[in-house]
Specification:
single chain; mainly alpha
């Protein structure tokens, strides 16, 4: 009897909370940069910094997700090999001399 790891999907409420918090935080920082009492060049620099931070956060999240999926797939392959070995093993088999 083998136990397999079940992948639990993200709930709709958690997904909505993540999207809303991302939108609110991005909007708040964007408004802060837009209304900062500095030159346009400083605002542009901060806006590019914000854009770079957001894109690198998405890239990091994708890399972490890919690494987790890779590990999950490798463990499933190892589990399948182990199950095959256990299924083929006969503890009562006697090897002839």
């Amino acid at each position: 009897m083998a136990t397999t790891k079940q992948h639990t999907p993200t709930s709709a409420a958690f997904y909505a909370q993540a999207v809303i918090s991302f939108a609110v935080s991005l909007g708040a920082v964007g408004l802060g940069v837009a209304y900062l009492p500095v030159d346009g060049w400083v605002r542009a620099f901060l806006a590019l910094g914000l854009l770079f931070t957001v894109t690198s956060a998405f890239t990091l999240a994708k890399c972490i997700r890919d690494r987790q999926e890779e590990g999950y797939l490798a463990s499933r392959v190892d589990q399948a090999r182990l199950e095959k070995l256990l299924a083929e093993h006969d503890p009562f088999k006697v090897d002839p001399l």
